[in-house]
Amino acid sequence: MSKQLIIAEKPSVAQDIARALGGFTKEKDYFESDDYVLSSAVGHLLELAVPEEYEVKRGKWTFAHLPVIPPHFAIKPIEKTEDRLKLLTRLIKRKDVTGLINACDAGREGELIFNFIAQHAGTGKPMQRLWLQSMTATSIRDGFANLRAARDVEGLRNAAICRAESDWLIGINGTRAMTAFNSKTGGFHLTTVGRVQTPTLAIVVEREDRIRKFKPRDYWELEATFGCKAGE
């Protein structure tokens, strides 16, 4: 009998789904019923590979080695969660699993987590999207009754991939450029740059600068007593 593999983003969500649908038996790290195999990631299981894993400009961090732009973006397992990735890959490749259901969180990162797993497994099996806004049993059952086609959320997946790749490009190149600049007189002065980190730091610095430049001025407060005749 063919089954659908449900992949949630975290174990607690997988447990909620198992309770809502019913009929599951618990294995070590997954659930199974007559119609479904159910397991989960534990957040991100894969990440974009670091520059050293590409055949791109290697060596000392200098402006001559910038920009670092890989010919493609490869993904690699996150070491501390590699066992969970191996489990999901094995479940995906089971012969009785004929399709996948993305039950990761409804949003960009949920799309990225699931699609990186599917990409790593190299599967061409059909995929559907479970879209949940609530974790009540009724909402979960309604979600399974109204599964979305993977193409319906393709824009979110593409947005998540763009976010990850832009973080990589800005972080890697910005960090190496600023480190090279601050190390030009000698030594190695690591200066990290990030798409979110750097603008946030700029806001903090701007605020601190305004505080330091503040010059107190005298001001006056008025106090007065007002009165009126009764009836006026």
Summarize the structure in words.
The structure is a single chain. By secondary structure, the protein is α/β, with parallel strands linked by helices. It folds into two domains: 3-153, Rossmann fold (3-Layer(aba) Sandwich); 164-212, no CATH class. The protein contains six helices and nine strands, in the order βαβββββαβαβαβαα. The chain has helices spanning 11-21, 82-92, 108-121, 137-145, 154-182, 197-212, and strands spanning 3-8, 25-26, 31-32, 36-40, 46-48, 75-77, 97-103, 127-129, 148-149. The strands form two sheets. A seven-stranded mixed β-sheet has the order 2-3-4-1-7-8-9. α1 (11-21) packs across α4 (137-145) and α3 packs across α5 (154-182). It is flat and about 85 Å long. The mean pLDDT is 94.
Briefly, what is this?
With 232 residues, the chain is of the alpha/beta class.
**Portion of residues in helices?**
25-40%
What fraction of the residues are assigned to beta strands by DSSP? Answer: 5-15%
**Mean of residue pLDDT values:** 94
Sequence stretches where pLDDT stays below 50 over 5 or more residues? none
| Rg (CA only) | 27 Å
| Main β-sheet description | 7 strands, mixed
Major sheet strand order: 2-3-4-1-7-8-9
Return the string of H and E elements. Answer: EHEEEEEHEHEHEHH
Number of helices: 6
Provide the number of structural domains. Answer: 2
Name of the CATH architecture of the largest domain: 3-Layer(aba) Sandwich
